[in-house]
Amino acid sequence: MPATGIAALPAGLKSRLFEGFAQRDLAIIRAAATERRLLANTVVTNQGTPAEHLFLLTSGRARYFFITEEGQKTLLLWLPEGEIIGGATFLPKASSYALSSETVKDSSVLVWGRAALRNLTAQYPRLLENALLMASDYLAWYLADHVALTCNTARQRLAQVLMRLAGVIGQKVHGGVEFDATNEELASAANITPFTASRLISEWQTNRAIAKRRGKILLRSPERLFLKVV
Predict the structure, then answer these.
(1) Average pLDDT, the chain
(2) Using H for helix, E for strand and C for coil, what is the string for the chain?
């Protein structure tokens, strides 16, 4: 993809990475990046490869995933606009990406090379501090997910995935919060089988906790996700 460098940030972009910066400093940080447009389902980073670039999602949507030794793809954290990909690029010691990532929709990203990013963090320590705060939130998400995996039932895990996606990528519409997700994606994120996911989705449609329409899921009543149909 062709990349172009401009001085201004995308209009309306809000990112925790830039909290506390004056506009003149943001212009300098932005000028060190290039902009790339990525089609949906484009792999952005590959786990185990050198962390040479930091990506900031300026439009669209992405997600992290992990490929197991058996070749199974496990979906992890969904990323809306303003989130970063490839935080290992900030580290002073050359490192590798721990996770893979991909776009879910046609997206745009700002990209900083490792050398440029290290120069910026030396000039603006707040940039690294903000990145650490974002990393702390990602760690908190992982901890909650791990606890759910070891302690919660399949129903509880899938319910939490639905509520988390509604909060991260959902859009408020008449009747609830709507977002894109297939049964297979939900099953992977909740670490359950597609059959179990389909069964629970059907059950929740029956008790009006959710509705499926036009390839989307409408979360209507989060509290009903924990009520078993009898």
Answers:
(1) 88
(2) CCCECCCCCCCCCCCHHHCCCCHHHHHHHHHCCEEEEECCCCEEECCCCECCEEEEEEECCEEEEEECCCCCEEEEEEECCCCEECHHHHCCCCCECCCEEEECCCEEEEEEEHHHHHHHHHHCHHHHHHHHHHHHHHHHHHHHHHHHHHHCCHHHHHHHHHHHHHHHHCEEECCEEEEECCHHHHHHHHCCCHHHHHHHHHHHHHCCCEEEECCEEEECCHHHHHCCCC
